[in-house]
Write a structure and sequence with these properties.
The protein has 464 residues and is an alpha+beta fold. The chain folds into four domains: 202 residues, ATPase, nucleotide binding domain (Nucleotidyltransferase, domain 5); 77 residues, Dna Ligase, domain 1; 93 residues, Nucleotidyltransferase, domain 5 (2-Layer Sandwich), CATH 3.30.420; 60 residues, Nucleotidyltransferase, domain 5 (2-Layer Sandwich). Helices cover 34% and strands 27% of the residues. The chain has twelve helices and 20 strands. A five-stranded mixed β-sheet has the order 3-2-1-7-12, with helices on both faces. A five-stranded mixed β-sheet has the order 15-14-13-18-19, with helices on both faces. A four-stranded antiparallel β-sheet has the order 8-11-9-10. α2 crosses α12.
Length: 464
């Protein structure tokens, strides 16, 4: 029996860590087999700042996902975010030795390798090299150069750059959790895969993913990624402001924000008041909902204005760069009441909330199709594109003798849930991928993953 193509995505966020196991069903939709979620400890603004705590949170999410699905995770595709991410535009070219020979994936790979050698600032590393448009012998606006002829192959690239130390820390955490790293993806790109339709990407759209620690932006036009940015503010700064402004503890501030919060102060009447229990025998606190929404409004305006500055930097006011599909909001922060109306008011652009149900199978639970899980769903889709066999069915007898995950640090206590003995699947037959027939996009993705993962593995092996 042929092995199933089981894909695993791991979203290491500032507020939560999500491990998601999925596969494609017979209709080409994504079927989620299991989800594990844990509170993210040790991550601030998308960057790991406590390796031990992050490993424990990852293990907790992984164990929960394995228990829910009955699958054992081998490797994961991880999302990279954080305030250290920046992007640059770059144009490069190669001169082909034989112009009469058809352009193949090798030529494009040569061009990408050349861009990967670009000199970066000290301590920075290239994460993604994304070709935008190609030029062959001066003929521009070519989207798919494979199969054409020419001597000079030129391309404009969107290059995403990040801090090497932050990327390696993520690699270390995953390896120490007892799983392998099969790929890295920029989080806004993963969210975009999950919530945007191809029509929106063609028309021009800005995806704003409001997370706990950061707000990510990805702009598409003509089906191509044009601009990415990470703003170092998210839902957590709103919670902090409520905590300070109302003199309450963080847990209460978070509950107030999600249950009663609104980004539009005009919605609440002056006499609407919520009572919060006092600490250790103190009198309860009364908080006016109008004041609460004023605090939230001030901070949300600040976040949206920063993101809008990035959209302006892309040049959306230029008629040729107009974003016809407007803005799509996703991530946990997009669930704040009236945020859609506020974004439309500030930017003057059409806005909708993005749910990752576009590519999910019809029987998916409501929780999974929440904007909270957009990045995790995108990472699983990314893993499927890489033809990963990232997990396998747990067999009953295997579990009985299985040792707990080996970790460099104290592992989280685990409980193994086994439903029934399942027929074990045979090894996958490795298919030889024909370089010539592969599409440009898949070739680029695969080669990037292979090279980058090797680089991280080498570093970790030599770090001891």
């Amino acid at each position: 029996m042929e092995k199933e193509n089981i894909a695993v995505g791991l979203d290491i966020g500032t507020t939560k860590i999500v491990a998601m196991i999925g596969k494609k069903n017979e209709y080409g939709k994504l079927e989620i087999l299991g989800v594990g979620k844990s509170k993210s400890l040790g991550v601030a603004r998308g960057v790991v700042n406590n390796i031990t705590q992050t490993i424990q949170s990852i293990q907790q999410a992984v164990i929960e996902a394995e228990a829910n699905s009955g699958y054992k995770i081998n490797d994961v595709v991880v999302g990279i975010a954080g305030q250290h991410i920046r992007s640059i535009q770059h144009t490069d070219y190669v001169i082909r030795t034989n112009p009469e020979e058809v352009i193949s994936g090798r030529d494009i790979q040569l061009l990408i390798d050349q861009v990967n050698k670009l000199a970066m600032l000290p301590g920075e590393e290239i994460i993604h090299v994304l070709p935008q448009e190609f030029k062959i012998d001066g003929q521009s606006e070519i989207k798919e150069p494979i199969g054409m002829y020419g001597g000079r192959l030129e391309a404009s690239f969107h290059v995403v750059v990040g801090q090497a130390s932050s990327i390696r820390n993520v690699g270390r955490c995953i390896q120490s959790s007892g799983i392998e790293l099969s790929g890295l993806t920029l989080e806004p790109l993963a969210s975009a895969d999950a919530v945007l339709s191809q029509e929106e990407k063609e028309a021009g759209v800005a995806l704003i993913d409001i997370g706990g620690g950061t707000t990510d932006l990805a702009i598409f036009k003509d089906g191509i990624i044009r601009h990415t940015a990470v703003v170092p503010f998210g839902g957590n700064v709103i919670t902090d402001d409520i905590k300070e402004g109302c003199s309450i503890i963080e847990k209460q501030a978070e509950l107030l924000k999600t249950k009663f919060g609104s980004a539009w102060p005009g919605e609440n009447k002056d006499n609407e008041i919520v009572s919060i229990p006092g600490l250790r025998g103190r009198d309860p606190k009364e908080i006016s909902l109008k004041n609460l929404s004023k605090i939230i409004h001030a901070r949300v305006v600040e976040i949206i204005e920063q993101v809008f500055t990035e959209i302006k930097a892309y040049g959306h006011e230029d008629p040729r760069k107009k974003l016809i599909a407007g803005i799509v909001l996703t991530g946990g922060g997009s669930q704040l009441k009236h945020i859609k109306q506020l974004v439309e008011y500030i930017t003057g652009m059409d806005t909708r909330i993005g749910y990752p149900n576009e590519h999910l199978a019809g029987n998916s639970s409501e929780e999974i199709s929440s904007p909270l899980f957009a990045t995790a769903v995108g990472l699983v889709m990314n893993s499927i594109e890489n033809n990963s066999n990232s997990a396998y069915k747990i067999e009953l007898k295997e579990v009985a003798v299985e040792a707990p995950r080996q970790a460099a640090f104290q592992p989280v206590a685990q409980t193994q849930v086994v439903e029934e003995k399942v027929e074990t699947v045979s090894d996958a037959i490795e298919e030889e991928i024909n370089l010539e027939t592969e599409t440009t996009e898949n070739k680029i993705k695969r080669s990037f993953f292979d090279r980058y993962v090797e680089k991280i593995k080498d570093f970790l092996d030599n770090a001891e």
